[in-house]
Structure formats: C-alpha cells, structure tokens
Amino acid sequence: MGTTIFTVMSALAQQHDAINLGQGFPDFDPDPALLDAVNTAMRAGHNQYPPMAGIPQLREALAAKMADLHGASYDPGDEITITAGATQALLTAVMAVVHPGDEVIVLTPAYDSYVPAIELAGGVPRFVALDTAYRPDFDAIATAITPRTRALLVNSPHNPSGRVWSLEDRHRLRDLLAPTDIVLIADEVYEHMVFDGQRHHSVAGDPALAARSFVVSSFGKTYHVTGWKVGMVAAPRELTREFRKVHQFNVFTVNTPMQHALAQHLRSRPQAHQQLPAFYQAKRDRFRHGLATTRLRLLPCEGTYFQCADYSALSDRPEAEFCEWLTRDVGVAAIPLSAFHPQPVERKTVRFCFAKREATLDAALERLATL
User: Fold this and answer.
1) Of 34, 61, 1, which Cα lies nearest the Cα of 217?
2) How far is it, in rounded angstroms, from Cα 153 to Cα 108?
3) C-alpha to C-alpha distance for 193 and 267, rounded to whole angstroms
4) Which CATH number characterizes residue 295's domain?
5) SS3 of 234, please?
6) How does pLDDT run across 276-311, given as a tens digit for each residue?
7) Dist. CA 214–CA 204, nearest whole Å
8) By Cβ atoms counted within 10 A, which residue in 16, 194, 289, 352 is the most buried?
C-alpha cells in the first residue's frame, strides 16, 4: 500500500501554501456546547474505559434518532455499536463477515479504504462501475453476483461524486438482493448532507435491507469533529454479534468523554443534525456560484460536502498532474477522481471540498477565478 492521495495532496498544499480543498474536513469549529459537554464529562470523571460496545446513553440516543428519521427499530443493547470512526466500522464489518476467497462487490469510484479492508480479510474485490452520471447500474451489479459473493458495499450520499441514491434505487437494491444471502455494508456517513429538498433513504428504513445490513455513520462528519474519530454501526443482532467479536480486539472501545458529550448533544440539540442540510447547501451554492464564471464544468452535487468539476476545457493533463498544477500554480488543492478507482480512470474530473469557512471559500474562489 502506498500513501493515500489525501495525505499526498494535503502535504503538497502545505508545501506550496495552497488553500486545501482536497481532504474532506471542516476548517471551522464545532458547536461550543459540544466542547463544553466534553469538558463537563471529563470533570465528572468519565475518563476510564466505557463498555466495549459504547455507553448505553449514546446507543439509546442513536436508536431513538434512527427510529425518528427512518422508522427503524434497533435494540441499543444488542444492535448498535460505537466505533473509532466510520473507517474502523467499515473495516470491522468486512473482517466480521468476509473470509478468504469471498467476493465483495465494490461500486466505483469508491472511497479508498474499502479495497484494503477487503484484501486484509482475504476477500476478493469485484468492481462494478457506476454509470457515467455516477448512478448505480443494477444490471451490472446483478451480473457481478456469483456463488462466492459474500457482501456488497454501497455509499450514499456518495463520495466522491456527491450523488444521492433515490427511493427507487433502494427498492431496486432490495429486489436485487432478495433471493441472495449477500450482506450489505452501507456507508452513510454523509446522511445529513442532502440538498434541494431531497431525502436520504437509509437502508435502515427498509426492513428487508436492514435485516442484512451494517449501517455505518460518523459523528465527525455530522458535528464537524473529524479529528475525534467517533462513528457508529447499526446491524441486526446476529451481525452485531460477529461485528463485536472483531471490534473487541480491534479497538476494544472508544473515547469515553466524547461519547458522553455526544449523547448529551443528540438529546439536547437535535437541531444540530436537522439544520445540517441547509448549512451545507448554503456553502455548496456559494462555491458553485463562484465557479460559474470559470471554464470548469460543475457536476451535480446532491449531497456530501464535495463538488466535482470537469476541467477538460482547461487542460489535457491527467487528473493527478492537473491537481498538482492546480496546487502549485493556482494555489488551491483538489483531489483527482482517478484516485477513487482501483485502476486509474481518466475523466478529467477533480473533487473539491466546500466544508470550509466563507472566508476560505472566497479566497479559494478568488484564485480559481483565473481558470
């Protein structure tokens, strides 16, 4: 394994004093009430090991939230686990169910941790490309299913494209998997970043899919605290049992005071996630408006905090070279979409992160206006 593209581009941005719109993290602070809640928890003595699966208060708050949002019924004791970020949740889910020689279907372009997790478990990734509009190709997925298919990894809202699966997509996924025993691993870390009045249709909201699924989410994404590395996974009792067998020897448990603070925040400030779509849509619109006068062609952005852009009117450079040039000569770092493919696919498209302060976005737009 080499160094991830996110680390490479962030280092390049620092080297050239570029504005980093590459790696997906906010440059603004979280809610001060959340920080105060962490301090209160530490002062109250919540500094030792919590229960392996997470503190009950947080799991209960998550069960209530999922019931409210998706009509989903999860037992907080046996079906929700707190993880050290979503990446650990995804790795642990794969390790729990994938055995050497098992095949796992991955829809590309895909977040770069999926394939290493599958290979670490001894599994064999089977790649199925999303269509040219980054929508799921269910006929291609059906063709990829074999007797050795153990799991399918899906991601909506989708990183890197910013597309969001529709309710019809979820229905087609349910029908496709119905005659199989394939386990579904659903990466839903951007669940609260869905724009223009659309809804996030979690697999948790479909009982048939929920019965075979690990549903993964991230507090870091929702509350602007990516450095805390706290996530969660909801799954039926039988799958959770296998998940926790790996989890206990992987990380065992997760930061105690942060869990107490997050539990309080979920209960006392539900508006934090309820207002997130409007919060990020305003940033998306600001960024798209600023780029409208450039020769970049903006792709649809229905969710996440990423905006993809086609630069073919500007340059014939391969994506990685274009991003290096953009960082070095223009002073703005982006991520090449080719990095999200198992083998580089060149579509002259790059990904920007707009989870930034207005001043940061405006400074970046001033530099990008030269394109």
Assistant:
1) 61
2) 10
3) 20
4) 3.90.1150.10
5) strand
6) 999 999 999 999 999 999 999 999 999 999 999 999
7) 9
8) 352
